[in-house]
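Lab meeting, item 3. Inverse folding demo.
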């Protein structure tokens, strides 16, 4: 039977029309979170999650609070049925805010309000710049980092062995991809995104977000949280606040975050929220660690049916 679990949370890009709808209908706690988000933001975010349209849901200013409330609703539905609590939490980029709420650092309300502002500020930074991103597959991380430094772009994500994402001004991104190909990297995939997330082009979003973070109460966590900006577990609220501001322009060190969580003795991970992107990364990080998904009611039933969760 599991006694040590890690909770992980999806990032931007995992959204899908219909997410959270069955959870809100079946779970009082999940439904209450969607209703709370609607009140806090003064708009029908739940309807956008449940019915779309997809184009509106994909906008950064909508997507970030939508994924966060859905992820927290998944967690709430799980907690109605299972008393197991995590030994560590983590989330990919945006998912870090849901992870902080899961660990008791942020209230669900504060997490939703923060990501709504974060999404708006980042969307505005995208509009003010000409940026893009690309996934670099099966390349030497040092080669990628050095090439990015020379070309004036940034490493946005170290997701898992064999997958790095680079980010920056479109013209420089093109020269970086050409340089990597010339160095022998054969697989580079431009990503369909609105801008250069986790790069210096997001700097315009940082000052206003830092002010909001300063005004938001962060509690001592019930368990440590792996933070993307530093790639390790953090338990000090003051350091967490600094790392959340730095994350907007800094690299997401997801592989390091996962390895730090596993070092606590976590026997399995549960991915909360839409999609199964993080479970896919785990196949490259450590395929021996079981990963469960809770993105809808069917996922929840399947997860809790595993005898290792107890009865």
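The presenter then showed the designed sequence:
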């Amino acid at each position: 039977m599991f006694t040590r679990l890690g909770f992980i949370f999806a990032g931007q890009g995992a959204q899908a029309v219909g997410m959270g709808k069955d959870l809100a209908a079946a779970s009082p706690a999940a439904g209450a979170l969607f209703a709370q988000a609607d009140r806090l933001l003064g708009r029908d975010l739940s309807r956008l999650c449940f019915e779309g349209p997809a184009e509106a849901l994909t906008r950064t200013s909508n997507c970030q609070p939508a994924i966060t409330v859905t992820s927290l609703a998944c967690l709430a539905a799980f907690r109605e049925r299972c008393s197991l609590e995590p030994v560590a939490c983590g989330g990919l980029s945006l998912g870090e805010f849901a992870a902080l709420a899961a660990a008791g650092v942020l209230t669900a309300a504060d997490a939703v309000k923060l990501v709504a502002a974060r999404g708006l500020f980042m969307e505005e930074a995208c509009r003010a710049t000409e940026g893009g991103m690309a996934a670099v597959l099966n390349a030497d991380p040092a080669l990628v980092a050095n090439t990015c430094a020379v070309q004036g772009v940034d490493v946005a994500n170290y997701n898992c062995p064999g997958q790095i994402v680079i980010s920056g001004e479109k013209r420089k991104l093109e020269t970086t991809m050409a340089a990597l190909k010339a160095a022998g990297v054969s697989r580079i995939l431009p990503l369909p995104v609105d801008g250069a997330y986790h790069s210096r082009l997001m700097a315009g979003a940082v000052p206003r977000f830092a002010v909001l973070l300063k005004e938001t109460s962060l509690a001592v966590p019930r368990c440590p949280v792996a933070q993307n900006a530093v790639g390790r577990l953090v338990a000090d609220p003051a350091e967490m606040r600094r790392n959340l501001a730095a994350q907007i322009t800094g690299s997401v060190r997801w592989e390091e975050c996962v390895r730090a969580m596993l070092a606590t003795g976590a026997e399995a991970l549960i991915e909360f929220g839409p999609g199964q992107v993080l479970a896919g990364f785990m196949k490259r990080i450590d395929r021996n660690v079981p990963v469960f998904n809770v993105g809808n009611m069917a996922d929840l039933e399947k997860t809790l049916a595993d005898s290792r969760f107890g009865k």
